[in-house]
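S1.2 Input.
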Amino acid sequence: MISLEDRRQEFEEKSKKWVPEPIHDFFFRMAEKYKDNEFIISQQKTWTYSNVKDSSKQFASGLINLGLKQREHVALIFPNYPEFVISKFGVLAANGVAVPLNYRLKNEELKYLISQSDSSFIITLDEWNDVNFVSILEELCPEVFEGKKSRTFPNLRNIIVFSPRGKKYPGTTDFYELLYSTEEDQAEKVVSNLPKDTISVMTDILYTSGTTSLPKGSLTTHDMIWRSAFGSCINRGFQEGRKIFVPIPFYHCFGYIEGIISASMVGGAVIIQVNFDENQALDLMEEYKADDIICVPTIGLKLLEAQRKKARNLTSLEAMYCAGAEVSQKMWKDLKTVLGLEELITGYGMTECAAGVLQTDPNDDLSYLPKYVGRTIPGGHIGLSSLDGNNIQFRIRDISSSEFLPYENEGELVCKGPLVTGGYYKNSKETEDSIDSDGWFSTGDLAVMNKDGYVSLTGRIKEIYRIGAENVAPKEIEDVLTGHIKVNQAYVIGVPDPIMGEVGQAWIVPEPDVSLNEEEIFEYVFNRLARFKVPKYIKIIRHDELPLTSTGKVQKLKLKEWYSTEQEKSASNLKKLNEVL
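S1.3 Output.
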């Protein structure tokens, strides 16, 4: 493989004449250059750049003929099918606004998001695993299936259904019938004749995961997405034709920007699965000679276990971007040795900041990866001089005084610049609470920055709990716990206590195939933490028992619910025992 510095130089040389532009226009331009290159590699079919470009333009024309007006909102409910990508580029090319939704949500959650987003169209898969999306929508808006106005969603006019088995659903529009309703040359004329919006116009409403409140719709622009992907390509040294295995959902900014958009900047490909399976994943990476993986730690762990049980030829595999949760030092070493990875990075991003805007350097020593989430991604020739040549700026701000702090001091991580959202859809209060008058966005994360710009996360402001008169940041305890040679992951929460107000509970995931008990953990942390920080409760579980979001983040609210449920069961059992006695 060409050296990282040479690849960076080659990418910057090739792209020095680029300027930010609408995402779909950029993709269509890349598709002209790389038209015969593979773009989407799935278990069923491979799509070239030309296939995706032509289908996206035809789909855009079909949407316009169906009545989609410019700037109307279109909800997408899809796992990682190629048709998601066609839908996304099609909506953008038709001058609509895409609203990609988490397909793992339940009825009431989808109901809230479709309503809150004011979606006029829905594009959905018919069935995924044991979920029937058509049945869910029939329950939520039966009137639309009868050609009437929905009482629940007043803006909704049409539901478009993609069925991999070719099933038809009365009252809906079939995905491929709509796509093929326009000839390619007609579609080209329709899309080309649309007025060109400026790149600062909203392209997506991307919803936050809603782990501490109702999901918020982050207003995302073409410019945010373009600059984020561009900076990541520079930092990671994207070479021509890079093939990336992407098990992250495309509705999420991580999978979309770091996968689809970044790959298209170099004529690369994304290798996808509808449902992640570690053995099939390794087989696909071996067969198609993947260069790169973007994933969360739980997926990285499963790939390690599968490769240990049955080794595949992964000599083409060089890189991995693993982020979203903390990874132990041992796991980073295992990823390097077991999967043969040379360029390992982690990063930090938010829906509101267009994916991974802090990243470690692929040349960094492995010791950096458990300690830092990275530094600001490069701006290249499009970086702003006012932001030191970058497209985003980070600072550390004192929680009490709001004053900016010098290096090596803990405070809240804040940021500003063209990579940061302008606010939340129809939520002025959250917008005002999150973005100050000078444009600084409050991330809610506690952090420390060193003189080289590398950021260490030290906790979430909302996760801090109080033991007596002392504030405790779970992240500090988690860092100590994951230093244990037998601990793979650790998550600490504050739980109620009648004497201290709150105490800590630690959920521990051991390294694979090791024996670990609570006493070992207590002894380990007791010698390394102040007594009040030592968790009162230890719970050892398997990694597949962790309650995760679709992007691999642990839902600490669920952990608290589990604790409450356990306490209720214990109280109930004690009551029954007393009654018997």
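S1.4 Remarks. The chain has 19 helices and 28 strands.
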